[in-house]
Specification:
Elements (H helix, E strand, L loop, with lengths): L3 E4 L2 E15 L6 E15 L2 E14 L5 E4 L1 H16 L5 H7 L7 H28 L4 H39 L2
Antiparallel strand pairs: 1-2, 2-3, 3-4, 4-5
This protein binds zinc ion.
Amino acid sequence: MELFEKDNGTETVVVSDIWAGKLDCTRCGSLCDHYLYRKTDRAYLLYVMIGDQTKERYIVCDKCGFSRKINKEEFDRLKKRQNERLLSGAFPVYVMKRDFSPKQVKLPRKLLAFFMACVFISACICWCIDLTMNNSIDAALFGCWAILTVIPAIPLYVTAKELITALRYRKLYRSALSK
Ligand SMILES: [Zn+2]
């Protein structure tokens, strides 16, 4: 779930994080699923997110929506514990189905983004080779090489990292479903 409050180059989003387990809700009184939530400020430059900062953290009852604000230490501790449980295959199948399906982790979109980053860096390298063929090697050319390979390396790194995470989730998802 994402709630947007768009502003000049920044937005505040409330995003659900990892499943926090089955806990007793202090409002509805039932033992039910809880999720960790983050309220985060994101900064954009030309539609590309250049940074984010989490302002508030919550633990939310999935049944009645009751949210309790928690501090960073508690959030980090819960998230670390749940990540370890996730990686060891201890999450229930219904949670895996709901939160870690290829669609839910946006695998197709991440594949496409990585592909685009590959095309971009290939085009830049081809351009550099073309420049080299048509010019004598000098300082300006070296500068072009440096800029045209460093700039596209950033989206390549970011998209590769996201894709690796999504593929890891797919593996966990498949092994959970095959149990
Ligand atoms: Zn509740």
